[in-house]
Amino acid sequence: MVDSQYYLPNDIGISALDCRVAFRLLSPKEQMYAHYLSRASWYGGLIVLIQTSPESANIYVLLQKIFRLQAPQQLEAAATAAGLSAEEYQAFLVYAAGLYANMGNYKSFGDTKFIPNLPKFKALVWESLAFKQSPGDMETLWGCCCEPLYSLEDKQKQLGLGEKGISAYFSGNCCLEDAEFAQKFLDSKVYFTFQSLDCFLIACISLPSADNCAVVGKSEVCCGKHEFEDSVFSVKRGDYAFLMEKVCQNLEKAKDYAANENQKRMLEEYIRSFTCGSVEAHKEGSRYWIKDKGPIVESYIGFIESYRDPFGSRGEFEGFVAVVNKAMSARFAQLVSSAEVLLPELPWPPAFEKDIFLKPDFTSLDVLTFAGSGIPAGINIPNYDDIRQTEGFKNVSLGNVLAVAYATQKDKLTFLEENDKDLYIKWKGPSFEVQVGLHELLGHGSGKLFVQDDKGKYNFDQTAVRNPETGELISSWYKGSETWDSKFSTIASSYEECRAECVGLYLCLNKQVLSIFGHEGEDAEEVVYVNWLNMVRAGLLGLEFYTPESKSWRQAHMQARFVILRVLLEAGEGLVGLRECTGADGRPDAVITLDRSKIYTVGKSTIQRFLCKLQVHKSTADVEGGRALYEGYSAVTADGTHNFLRLRETVLLRKEARKMFVQANTYIKGDAVELVEYEGSAAGLIQSFVERFPDDAEEVEAQLREMTCMDSSCWRKEEPHTQM
């Protein structure tokens, strides 16, 4: 029997992202700008199919061909003819919706594979109109993906490196040591975040770009072969060339509707970056993006987050377009204005904080388009450490995502005492809004990295700065081109999320912060209680994303929350309670409790100490100390007071599937932009994707198949397959 965690349930939550009012309030020029940015994002988002797994793009094309000729309602007759029950057909629709929502057949949140919960997938394909019109082509497509579609071999159950899972960022014969060696080579050069690595005697590094140009700028290395420590690296551009060209074409059109010079220059640099694969151009574009304060239409695009790279360095494509919610943004602006007062409250010495806090934009946005593998609740970007430390960043909270993503029904609310459930439902939204604001602005936006640059210049006084944990002068720092991600690699993303979450917990105790968000008196205390309760509950829920067989975590945020749960449990004194029990249904259950009277004493001091340790290891590039601390709390064992391996089984037994979102499309009708929205259902999500590429769907699908062929397990066939 297949474990249910590899299926998407038929009753999975699917919600439409409402952006109708926000879009209609835009001027015609702003709507055009938003439209072309959305088109660029949607084309680029297809890259994620190639980045996720070798079979994802072929499954996507198969589904597109089926649904383009028969909408979900029309296909139902074919499903009946193929012998599918109503439940099985719904399972087919849910699988298809999941493939679209995650841009691949691995969950964007957790990196676990999901397979169709029906045995008659092939029979339905054969009964479809697409098969009847093009049987040879459809049979070929089916042959390319039918085996991995259902395969749950150990290595294929999750994304990972080497024997731990599937990765499209590395060839199948790459291991962690190979990835570390490749990173060492890249640290000696200046490259755009490379998207794939073949691990042979000649290691091939591929850079995404529309062109195959060899030289981009003075600071960037030519393509070609490079000798490095008795090995050879072959660097190529032109990955995803067709899609990158489509991105650039739409960014070029968006330029005509830019509101100011910063937006124009931003788009010009993005186009240069995506044309030739230049990291410097993307960084320059990001600088103009930071300078574009308070735009009505906000966007960002590129290879941004590294969560799904098993080594933690390569970025997954992402593009979003959103409209500012002015009322909520006013609260965030007030938080920004208070940042210079709040930052000194954080529990590390002044020398460990940035020399100057560069006040960022912090806006609440209603998402029009979010192309990629998933939609977060908030974002703090750009992710370039050198820019963030000295030039600034932006924060966004995605309001219409928050409004629907975290709504919970009482009967589905797990692991809480009954007297906490009503309180939790009432205050989870407001408390999470506070947590997201603090997490993004003062979590990711705080803390200094000690750096010695290529010229030997220090950004700190190495004769005076002392480690607050030891009292000794600091003895380690970042050197040359080293970055947070390259140094801390596999734990970098989760460690940083943990640090930001701890900042949120710590500063939500501040009355000024709560007042900014409109919470006073008893209401403010309820927000604090539910925020902390939500965090420890999330830590327990995080066990779903741990794989015992490989002893690895599959989701950065959930690992971070589990670590925080461990830290607070270790504090003792009855602050957090966790007990196993039997539920009313006779099955294993658990209950987590929080003593609200001890949050400001035991809780605050515990997070204070832990947060300081996290920051010191990060600031000083102390990989060994940081890894020992973080991996120690990340360990999931059956030893000690709590049997977390057994609790994991209980969490899996009672887990609720993560919601999926249906997004609108925009079309040019004469001189105006038309917004088309879809119902919040599997059928609505499917239809939104079918109508997303109305003019060139077949060309796009053909190119995806070609790129998939190039990026299969034997990709880069021209390189010798001699093991490194």
UniProtKB/TrEMBL annotation:
Keywords: Acetylation, Aminopeptidase, Cytoplasm, Hydrolase, Metal-binding, Metalloprotease, Protease, Zinc. Binds 1 zinc ion per subunit. InterPro entries: Dipeptidyl-peptase3 (IPR005317), Peptidase_M49 (IPR039461). Its cofactor is Zn(2+). Its EC number is 3.4.14.4. Gene3D superfamilies: 3.30.540.30. GO terms for biological process: proteolysis. It catalyses: Release of an N-terminal dipeptide from a peptide comprising four or more residues, with broad specificity. Also acts on dipeptidyl 2-naphthylamides. It is an enzyme of class 3 (hydrolase). It is found in: Cytoplasm. It comes from the Eukaryota. One of its GO terms (molecular function) is zinc ion binding. The keyword Kinase does not apply. Belongs to the peptidase M49 family. PANTHER family: DIPEPTIDYL PEPTIDASE 3, DIPEPTIDYL PEPTIDASE III-RELATED. This is Dipeptidyl peptidase 3.
